[in-house]
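To illustrate the input format used throughout this study, we show a single complete record. The first block contains the structure-token representation of the backbone; no residue identities are included at this stage. The design step must infer an amino acid for every position from geometry alone.
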């Protein structure tokens, strides 16, 4: 492990813990309050594995984006650069590429953020009061798209005290960030407002010599307005209205570089001639109504609306040649409505609720795609008529002349999802120490999927006449290639499927002392089924839901008069009917989602936090996960260019590990508050090696372990403060992803981690 000296000499100041003993925006005494499970509990009262990054810690560590939170959280890992994340080794897109729904969702003030916006959308943490990362299934509380977990971002609410703050950041790669936030009363005691805005610009750290431009620039603006209404004529009622607008112009979601360049860590180059960029636009509104009914009862109604759109351009051959490109236009319109009744009594506490979800998704694309010529299939199919040696020679000659062929491809894949659910969650104290935990969700989902595609050959095929007496065989090969392209054209009428799922939860909790408790909980996780469009066959193919059973043991403890907390969760997950995207032998486009897998995973999270004094505190965490596909295979036709009469197994992931499932994730840090306003923070995080895909051989997609060290030192003069920071202080060189889709005919591509970034932060507040 690189920088082992750091972990040996400063292990007690390394790690990221949600239990940082600081004063967050919402506390009970000195304890952090967790709200993502739709009730307010202290961190020590929450047996679910949750990492909480408070607003205080965001400032201390100069955390600017959600990716920074991922890096500092045990058993959470960024995927494909910063375009997504995995929780406990489960990629939020699905571990093997199949299925339409996510396995984990990011919520901002209760509104779900569509997957397409996570890489460069509204997930900055300016004016954010808390980020809660729930590890493990949230299917009972959150419902759909929460099989692996959920992330809740809570922004600062209005107050009846006037506030104003601003921030300016200048850092490496010509990065400039300017932000402002503030508000106060409109009607004292009844109506208050808060507004915030942030402008970010950066050249990025990848350069394109072909276009003579930076390849992953950033130009974004985020603006939010919130209202708080507490009417005097209804003293137990609160209403919060929130509107957020985001615009962003960035590089493509995957900032690829050419790995054939010498010393590519220091020469991060992309040679694409076609633009590789993204233009995002998002609007989000939430209305949160809360009413204290008395007698321990409260009523909550949460309405959310999200409208997003994006346009992406992408160079498909990674070179200065005009060979392949992609233009994609899409968006989501999502509406949710939740009505919930909470109860807090001496022995019984819990909630019941109703939920409705509606989402329309649009995705239209036009691209010229390079399809690798299937030399092995050609050789196999010609062997009977030409003999093995001559068939091998012809296949080699043909693929040498035509290593790949371009296909002009236009597609439209609209989807619609509607979900209704009833759910409940609660605890009952049988004694002062022993409690029962239980809950359920009954979920009914109706989804509609359709598809249309038009494909034409965009290049020329080899001339049979140049092959002499083998001309008839080459004519047949050309006809088969054209047949593959023709097969990629077609459409299917929208197909609608309905799924019902019952998701129970049960457990026990024992409070051994006021400072030590344990719990054991069993619950069922779920991701719905649907219909997948097979382009080559112009058909929709149905696939079923996938389920997990999750067994989790937790420990919550406080020591040394509450100044030290030590919390742990140990889990085992059994996963059945996993959804996988499988190819069925008739060319690249002959693919759709099937239920083909069974797997398991297990591990733990351990988190420590210790406030030694008013001047010093430290925190540390460790996560461990083991994943394995137990049985994961699909029987498919092997005929390829012929009649497909023979069958076999091509998709077989049995024995492989999940992609982006690091075995170890360690993190930690320490805060030092010196006299006269000086303060400092150092933090580090380690992630062990991961595989970037489930393609065989999996070792080809392995990226090595990395350790990142960050530091900040500042001076706080009261109304203003200044600090300097360094991220990736020791200039760690590491890959985040190696593309498995490039061949020896195209340059190898990958995503490298961010280099060292140094900057200065100036803040002021009233």
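Output of the design step:
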């Amino acid at each position: 492990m690189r920088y082992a000296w750091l972990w040996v000499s400063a292990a007690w100041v390394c790690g990221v813990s949600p239990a940082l003993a600081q004063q967050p925006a919402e506390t009970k005494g000195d304890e952090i309050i967790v709200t993502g499970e739709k009730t307010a509990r202290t961190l020590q009262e929450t047996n679910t594995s949750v990492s909480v990054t408070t607003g205080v810690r965001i400032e201390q560590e100069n955390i600017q984006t959600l990716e920074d939170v991922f890096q500092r959280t045990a058993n959470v890992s960024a995927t494909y650069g910063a375009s997504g994340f995995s929780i406990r080794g489960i990629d939020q897109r699905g571990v093997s590429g199949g299925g339409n729904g996510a396995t984990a969702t990011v919520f901002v003030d209760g509104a779900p953020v569509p997957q397409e916006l996570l890489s460069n959308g509204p997930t900055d943490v300016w004016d954010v009061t808390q980020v809660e990362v729930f590890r493990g299934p949230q299917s009972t509380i959150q419902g759909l798209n929460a099989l692996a977990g959920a992330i809740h971002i809570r922004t600062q609410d209005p107050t009846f005290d006037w506030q104003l703050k601003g921030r300016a950041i200048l850092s490496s790669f010509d990065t400039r960030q300017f932000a402002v936030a503030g508000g106060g009363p409109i009607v004292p005691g009844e109506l208050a407002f808060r507004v915030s805005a942030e402008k970010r610009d950066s050249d990025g750290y990848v350069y394109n010599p072909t276009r003579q431009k930076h390849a992953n620039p950033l130009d974004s603006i985020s603006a939010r307005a919130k209202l708080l209404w507490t009417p005097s004529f209804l003293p137990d009622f609160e209403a919060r209205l929130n509107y957020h607008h985001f615009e962003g112009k960035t590089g493509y979601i995957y900032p690829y570089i050419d790995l054939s360049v010498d010393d590519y860590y220091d020469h991060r180059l992309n040679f694409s001639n076609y633009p590789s960029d993204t233009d995002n636009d998002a609007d989000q509104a939430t209305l949160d109504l809360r009413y204290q009914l008395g007698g321990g009862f409260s009523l909550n109604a949460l309405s959310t609306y999200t409208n997003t759109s994006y346009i992406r351009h992408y160079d498909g051959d990674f070179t200065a040649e005009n060979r392949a490109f992609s233009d994609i236009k899409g968006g989501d319109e999502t509406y949710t409505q939740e009505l919930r009744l909470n109860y807090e009594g001496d022995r019984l506490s819990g909630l019941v609720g109703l939920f409705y979800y509606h989402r329309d998704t649009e995705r239209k694309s036009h691209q010229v795609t390079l399809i690798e010529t299937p030399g092995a299939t050609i050789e196999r199919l010609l062997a009977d008529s030409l003999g093995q040696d001559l068939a091998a020679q012809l296949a080699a000659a043909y693929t040498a002349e035509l290593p790949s062929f371009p296909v002009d491809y236009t597609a439209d894949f609209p989807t619609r999802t509607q979900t209704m659910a009833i759910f409940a969650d609660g605890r009952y104290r049988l004694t002062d120490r022993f409690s029962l935990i239980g809950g359920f969700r009954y979920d009914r989902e109706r989804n509609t999927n359709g598809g249309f595609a038009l494909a034409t050959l965009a290049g020329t095929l080899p001339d049979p006449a140049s092959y002499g007496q083998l001309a008839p065989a080459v004519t047949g090969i050309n006809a088969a290639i054209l047949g593959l392209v023709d097969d990629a054209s077609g459409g299917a009428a929208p197909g609608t499927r309905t799924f019902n799922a019952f998701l129970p939860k049960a457990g026990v909790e024992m409070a051994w002392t006021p400072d030590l408790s344990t719990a054991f909980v069993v619950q069922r996780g779920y991701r719905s089924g649907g219909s997948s469009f097979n382009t080559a066959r112009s058909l929709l193919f149905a696939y079923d839901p996938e389920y997990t059973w999750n067994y989790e043991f937790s420990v919550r403890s406080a020591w040394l008069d509450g100044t030290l907390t030590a919390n742990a969760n140990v889990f085992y997950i059994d996963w059945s009917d996993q959804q996988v995207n499988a190819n069925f032998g008739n060319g690249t486009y002959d693919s759709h989602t099937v239920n083909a897998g069974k797997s398991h995973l297990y591990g733990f999270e351990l988190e420590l936090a210790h406030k030694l004094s008013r001047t010093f505190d430290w925190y540390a965490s460790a996560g461990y996960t083991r994943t394995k596909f137990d049985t994961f295979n699909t029987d498919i036709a092997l005929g390829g260019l012929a009649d497909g009469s023979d069958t076999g197994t091509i998709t077989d992931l049995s024995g492989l590990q999940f992609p982006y499932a690091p075995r170890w994730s360690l993190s930690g840090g320490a805060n030092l508050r010196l006299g006269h306003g000086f303060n400092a923070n150092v933090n580090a995080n380690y992630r062990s090696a991961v595989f970037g895909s489930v393609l065989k051989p999996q070792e080809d997609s392995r990226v090595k372990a990395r350790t990142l060290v960050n530091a900040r030192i500042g001076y706080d003069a009261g109304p203003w403060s200044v600090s300097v920071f360094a991220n990736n202080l020791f200039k760690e060189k590491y890959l985040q992803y190696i593309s498995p889709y490039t061949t020896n005919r195209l340059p190898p591509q990958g995503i490298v981690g961010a280099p060292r970034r140094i900057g200065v932060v100036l803040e002021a507040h009233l």
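Structural context for interpreting the output: The longest strand covers residues 348-372. The helical segments are 4-10, 55-60, 66-71, 375-386, 388-401, 471-487.
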